[in-house]
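Intended use. Records such as the Aromatic ring-hydroxylating dioxygenase subunit alpha entry shown here are meant for training and evaluating sequence-to-structure methods. They are not intended to support clinical decisions.
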Amino acid sequence: MTTLVRNAWYVAAWSSEVDDQLRRFTILGDAVLLYRRGDGHVVALEDRCPHRQLPLSMGKRIGDAVQCGYHGLTFGPDGKCTRVPGQDKIPPSAYVEAYRVVEKNDIIWIWMGEAHRADPDTIFDLPQFHEPGWHAHQGDALFLKSNYLNVAENLVDPAHVSFVHPTTLGNSASENVPVHVSTDGPAITAWRWIRDAEPIGFFKAFGGFEGNVDRWHYYHLYAPSIAVIDFGSAETAAGIAEEDRDSGNRIFALHFMTPVSETETIDRWMHLRNTAIETEEASERIDAMFRVAFGEDKEILEAVHAEEQRPAKRRPIRLAIDRGPMVYRKRITEMLERERTEDVSAEPNGAFVYHD
């Protein structure tokens, strides 16, 4: 049974990854052709000619249309076939699927599910993208040999940071600090504050802290596959309250996880920061530190995924720190169930009388 939710907005690519060339991406197990029309708008088509199945990405541009490289069938940006060389009649089945795409915040979003359910107003956004005093910087597209569920669960789990990232994003000071979890809103949130402790390696290098700090980690996970990590530090002497995090050195690390298949995931990560906003040197330094930390995650997650493929002798255990991941799995199951069935129970039916 699939774990891939289709009725959701996914990040297909950074805006910088798509130009006028025909480029092939794999999303939810489907090959997708992305390119820009002459007016700059992004086109997303099924990357497979319906005639002999050759990828259209191996063809060529004819204006804003794409010509198959095998027999010349030509498809417009809407997926409809406009030409079949050698015959006048175009069969009704000569088309490729066209996917809804929206470009926002220099990110290309794609909807792979039922087209009538695609609502651009539900695409993820953060106020800090649009507020002065914040700098947005896109990082890498990290490939992981892991199901996206494990990748997402890792991003609502503050407890792993002390052990997986001891020199970058965590240290021993947080090992026994309780994790708080809230599952009431659209996001599953796990967080904790570490007061009057040594700064982590990230903020020693980037924030310039030398004495003890108060630091925080807020992990927000939006099903199916978007995570926002709000973390930062402030000098302990400042005694900042939880709602005053903007007065400290604050960073949002964003993770957009796009399932390539049931066994592979692309994690496109970026950050927004409220310090050193005028210099790209800071961006490069932060990228370097993140690459170390996310490389540590990659090693762990790929090892977990490989082990999950082996026969299990007993059931895995779950701990108190797994509250967030368990709720996340439940939400994914509910999303998949809604896609597997069609709810017509609201339609009037004289055979039933409802009292609730």
